[in-house]
Amino acid sequence: MDGKRPRSFYVLAAVFTLFLIFLYGPTITIAILSFQGPQGGLTFPMRGVSLHWFYDLFEQQAVGDIWGSFSRSLILGLMVMVTTVVVSVMGGLAFRKRFAGSGLLFYVIITSLVIPSILVSLGVGLIFNQLGFKVHWATSGFGSQLTWTLPFGLLIMFAVFNRFDKSYEEAARDQGASPWQTIRHVVLPIIAPSLIGVALFGFTLSYDEFARTLLTAGSYNTLPLEIYGMTTNVTTPVIFALGTLTTIFSFFVIGVFLLTVWSLGRRRSKQGSDAGKGMV
Q1: What range(s) does the ABC transmembrane type-1 domain occupy (predicted)?
Q2: How far apart are CA 161 and CA 183, in angstroms?
Q3: 269 is a domain residue
Q4: What pTM, to 2 d.p., does this model score?
Q5: Cα–Cα dist 127/122, whole Å
Q6: Structural domain tally of the chain?
Q7: Phi and psi of 49, rounded to 5°?
Q8: Which domain does 227 fall in, by range?
Q9: pLDDT at 96
């Protein structure tokens, strides 16, 4: 070996670089254009550099309801996140043992992943109309988004419990713990990082979901619907400023979840070291 990298290494590195540019190029372009001056437009070249459009974003807009749609997306995302975590854990616990119809139920659960999202949105909207219920982002929109987030959460929980060491639960029961105490004090702390991952999946998938919310949000838009509507009637970089802020918010949410996972891991390692010292 002469220490030289093969030519294929540079080819793969170039392909990977192009992939990153393709993946993040549009987001970076929007971020750059959002810092244009007051006379800026929607395309290059930039006309000055300022924070004008970020300030303008917080003013009353001539069209749309940006902050109302943001609050709806935030509330809906939290609702979907909590429901996804709770149902996924319950489903993961239930599927630890085979029961009649478990195979069929599993395929029914994951089928919603392959059905076109717009058809799911249409179907949920029609069902609510036929039943006489109001099509609203907090009811029909909530239900349609769960058809997207729950399968991911359940698949994660299936994988987690498939590798879960049941000896921990047996030890807890030997110490006199009830089934609920075993779940609360043994199972949930062990799978906590996975629960955070399911929560992140649930929130982010809900926060930016468009197709499954299109026909189920009713007369009040969520943020993705609002942004789509703004593309037809907003001709200033304020829409780029909105995109930049929502991207920053998304990274902030991911950072909070990662920090939580890190703190849980650190606390667990500290407890393990303290237990080891106690045994010594």
Answers
A1: 70-257
A2: 12
A3: no
A4: 0.85
A5: 9
A6: 1
A7: -130, 125
A8: 64-233
A9: 87
What residues in the chain have per-residue pLDDT under 70? 1-3, 60-64, 271-280
Q: Helix or strand or coil: residue 133?
A: coil
Residues 204-215 pLDDT 10s:
999 989 999 999
Dmax (CA) for the chain in angstroms is 75
- Inter-residue long-range contacts of 111-119, CB under 8 Å, 24+ positions, other chains counted: 112/147, 112/148, 112/150, 112/151, 113/148, 113/151, 113/152, 116/211, 117/148, 117/211, 117/212, 118/211, 118/212, 118/214, 118/215
The pLDDT value given to residue 279 = 52
Task: Show the tokens assigned to 53.
Answer: 């459009």
Q: Measure the CA–CA gap between 165 and 186, rounded to whole angstroms.
A: 11
Look at the block and give the residue holding tokens 């996804």: 84
Task: Give pairs for 122-126: CB < 8 Å, separation 24+.
Answer: 122/215, 124/212, 124/215, 124/216, 125/215, 125/216
Query: What pLDDT sits at residue 205?
Result: 93
- 173 lies in some domain: yes
pLDDT of residue 41: 82
CATH number for the domain including 152? 1.10.3720.10
Region of 136 (left: φ > 0; alpha: ψ -120 to 50; beta: rest) is beta
Average pLDDT over the chain, rounded to an integer: 87
Identify whether the C-beta of residue 124 lies closer than 8 Å to the C-beta of residue 55.
Answer: no
